[in-house]
Design goal:
11 helices, 2 domains, 38% helix, alpha+beta, four-stranded mixed beta sheet, 220 residues, single chain, disordered C terminus
Length: 220
């Protein structure tokens, strides 16, 4: 990295934990949204991706290599087994696409699994994100609870949430109650969040909203 910084004009090397990088601040320093390219360590892929979601407003695109299983979940459509929390989050926050697959022989040391290069176009989804009108922490908590019991119907899986004094409704609407979470479109999770918690201004500065525990207050 030192050789790269010394020999390539315009390159700045930042030595930091990738999970602790403030991409919003980095974009301000660079004077505009970031374009991210990377080969993500498989054991922290999800944490890195959700960190990027936290800073979606400051990222133009991210073309990243990850385990194929994770890539398939991000791009999965409703009514499929791989559809889950990553599908909902990233299809709301970005246009997602698997660009190509990579065999284990493309890496050294060689992993035991296939990999994929995924495009996350955050800029293309800016209008969609601006229209969410929900606190991302509420959306994350509701989505996480729904998929925790993915074999159950939503009326049962969200029963605990209905018991919370902070929710605005006492009963799940009939059109959702008898559906399982994998049958619900990403935008419908936004609608459910609005029903439960109301429309809220999207926090301009928040950290790790998608990785907090259920009910945990996430610090700015």
């Amino acid at each position: 990295m030192r050789v790269l910084a010394q020999n390539v004009p315009g390159v700045s090397v930042i030595r930091s934990d990738v999970l602790l990088v403030n991409y919003t601040k980095l974009a301000e320093i660079r004077g505009g949204p970031l374009s991210i390219v990377g080969n993500l360590p498989f054991h922290v892929t999800s944490q890195i991706l959700f960190t990027l979601a936290d800073h979606a407003r400051s990222i133009r695109t991210a073309n990243v290599i990850m385990q194929k299983e994770v890539a398939d979940r991000i791009c999965a459509k409703p009514n499929t087994k791989k559809y889950g929390i990553p599908s909902v989050v990233f299809q709301l926050y970005a246009d997602t696409k698997i660009l190509f697959d990579l065999p284990p022989t493309a890496f050294f040391p060689r992993p035991n699994v296939m990999a994929s290069c995924v495009s996350l176009d955050f800029e293309a989804a800016e209008e969609r994100r601006n229209a969410l009108d929900v606190d991302p922490r509420d959306l994350r908590n509701l989505t996480n609870l729904a998929f925790r019991y993915r074999r159950k119907m939503m009326g049962n899986s969200l029963a605990k949430l209905l018991q919370c004094h902070t929710t605005l409704i006492d009963e799940l609407p009939a059109e959702y109650a008898k559906l399982r979470p994998e049958q619900i479109e990403p935008w419908e999770f936004v609608h459910l969040t609005q029903l439960f918690f109301g429309k809220k201004e999207f926090p301009k500065n928040f950290k790790l909203a998608w990785r907090g525990e259920f009910g945990r207050t996430v610090r700015d």
